[in-house]
Amino acid sequence: MAKKLSFLNKLALNKELLEGGHRLCPGCGHSIIVRMVLNTAMQEGYQPVMANSTGCLEVCTGLYPYSSWNIPWIHNAFENVAATLSGAESMYKSLSRRGKLNNDKIVFIAFGSDGGTYDIGLQALSGAAERGHRFLYVCDDNEAYQNTGNQRSSATPYGTRTTTSAVGTADPIGKKQKRKDIMEIMAAHEIYTAQASPSYWMDLIKKVKKGLKQNGPAYLNVIQPCTTGWGYDPKDTINLAKLAVDTCIWPLYEIENRRSKVNYKPKNKLPVEEYLKKQKRYAHLFTPKGKEALEKIQQLTDEHWNFLLEREQAGF
Amino acid sequence: MSKRVALSGNEAAAHAIRQINPDVIAAFPITPSTPIPMAVSQFIADGKMTTEFVTVESEHSAISACVGASAAGGRVMTATSANGLALMFEILYIASGMRRPIVAPVVARALSGPLNIHGDFSDVYGVRESGWVELFCQDSQEFYDTIIQSVKLAENESVLTPVMPIADGFDISHTVENWYMEDDEAVQKFIGEYHSKYSLLDTEHPVTFGAWAPPDWYYEHRRSQLEGLLNACDAFKAVDKEFGEKFGRSYGVIEKYHSDDADIVVIGMGAVSGTIKDAVDEMRANGISAGFLRVKLFRPFPYKDIIEALKGAKAIGVFDRCITAGAQTAALCTDIRSAMYGKSNIPIVNYTYGLGGRDTTVSHVKTVIEQLKEAAEGKKIDLINYINLRA
């Protein structure tokens, strides 16, 4: 514990690479995750160069004539953060090879949300991963298009109310499809692929370190509770990120060299209701009409969790 | 010493790119410009260029990677055509808005649908408001020269704007012509080293690229960006002059072919120029006062040079290799009519030609010149006419 705290202490004392004074909502998970990732990179002696897809994080930190970034930072568009960063990384390789640049501390980190990762940016991400650029891609997954006001994405879980998977008298469920399994998609590129939560920060930091050490792409999927889209009290961000893990809705695991590892197995696996009931986006499920959907969410969660455990046990 | 070679327009572009040897190229194959990235790949494999070649999964990612690479401080190129350029549309605006001096040769081709892979300006006309410099070329030599010139133009401190050298698909890209290739060292010396003021890779001096602008700043950004684009007109003249002094070939923002003393002036861009020049020669031999004005720089539009060049004209026919989507005339003709507004009352009519690779011959152009002669004498003529189109 003492070692843990001293690392946290050092992490917290780092120069802030994302300045305060940005416009993210109180309680937003973005800034917490970004600081964990960037401070870890800095703690490890790296000099991060960052690309950001269009989204909450970008609009709240890069509003002309202000910038919250104390590191080189680029925003291009919504769907192309991986392509943009692959260009920057290629330039790094070229200039280094041609003797015009000498800096082996530079690492490339992309931040995209689920919209820019699972959906509109999936092609660019897959392309960049296949080409093998050296970069860590962090998906801050808040399970919907939150920047435009909580529209469903393919990361939105089954039974979620969003503004485009509406709940009404004729539709008691909300989103009818389960979330896309981005972890398996990224793992299929045979790159280091990990899922983390800011509530389990030591685990997250380990994964960031591992990702940055890869001699190629790495993908990190991080749950990012959204106070406005999910509908909860801003003080509960980390609590929700913890409940997501403890209910096994958001398992902490990694896939490397075609082998998976579940990094955290809750001693007391909580029922999904414990997590869902704290969020307005699931309020419709806690009515008589929502009972079936609630059961289905538990079933989907268990199926996925059991799959992860069985696969790990089988050595894959 | 330059050497005379017999190669296609695509090969001319590829050799220009090889000699420029940019730091990064990100490209995706599309007909008719595919031979360009193919040649780049072979040049690299043969050790003839040392560019970092990013073989992206789409044109959208090609131009996105170019923006990222350019922000990282080096010289960047791509090449594309038609649907590829259309797929880049969104990021073309971002590239110019971020003042990235990217050079992207475009082998112009028809846009679908119906699918058609042949020469046409629908693609490059479609992006004429994207804030890029557009330079139209009439043959392989000019395509080669213009690509080299474009590097220097784009990186000019007063310009810092991306540039598209343009050649008609197939008519230029796949036609083998004789042209002069300069020495690698001479080309390198002409373009010089590129030094970016700001770089993503300068971790000591972190810079934010691509901040967004709310209503109280967006307008100012766009207005100041325009300044760089407009500066490209004079900057090109200077680069072109220097190129001429060094290599003996220069083009100007417009080319006047017997147009100064001509009653009838045909205006056009690109590969059709040779055909028009032949027609002008034949008509002149028959005693008809015909001339040709070739627009090389389409964006920014060199309207002052054009007005000056058209002072003596009695009738003008403007060739557009693109059909208008409901405007009064197609793009070049609209620009010419706009430039001539209040200057004279002569007929200025539009000729749509060559869509999707349709041939335009000397006899077609001669018929046009005859029509324009009658129009100059007072005969009524349609505002838009379609060359070599089935009735």
The radius of gyration of chain B is: 21 Å
- The mean pLDDT of chain A is 96
Helical/strand content category of chain A: alpha/beta
Number of strands of chain B: 16
Observed structural traits:
heterodimer; A: 316 residues; Rossmann fold; eight-stranded mixed β-sheet; 12 helices; 40% helix; globular; B: 391 residues; six-stranded mixed β-sheet; four-stranded mixed β-sheet
What does this 3D model show about the protein?
The complex is a heterodimer of chains A (316) and B (391). Chain A is of the alpha/beta class. Chain A has helices spanning 2-13, 29-43, 56-61, 81-97, 114-119, 122-131, 182-187, 201-213, 227-231, 237-246, 273-276, 291-313; strands at residues 47-52, 73-75, 106-113, 136-141, 192-196, 218-223, 253-256, 259-262. Helices cover 40% and strands 13% of the residues of chain A. In chain A, strands 2-1-3-4-6-5-7-8 form an eight-stranded mixed beta sheet, sandwiched between helices. In chain A, strand 1, helix 3 and strand 2 (73-75) form a beta-alpha-beta unit. Chain B has two domains: 3-247, Thiamin diphosphate (ThDP)-binding fold, Pyr/PP domains (Rossmann fold, 3-Layer(aba) Sandwich), CATH 3.40.50; 254-386, Rossmann fold (3-Layer(aba) Sandwich). In chain B, strands 10-12-11-14-15-16 form a six-stranded mixed beta sheet, sandwiched between helices. In chain B, strands 5-7-6-13 form a four-stranded mixed beta sheet. Chain B is built from twelve helices and 16 strands. The chains are: A alpha/beta (316), B alpha/beta (391). At the A-B interface, strand 1, strand 2, helix 4 and helix 6 of A face strand 3, helix 3, helix 4 and strand 9 of B. Strand 2 (73-75) of chain A pairs parallel with strand 9 (208-209) of chain B, so a sheet runs across the interface.
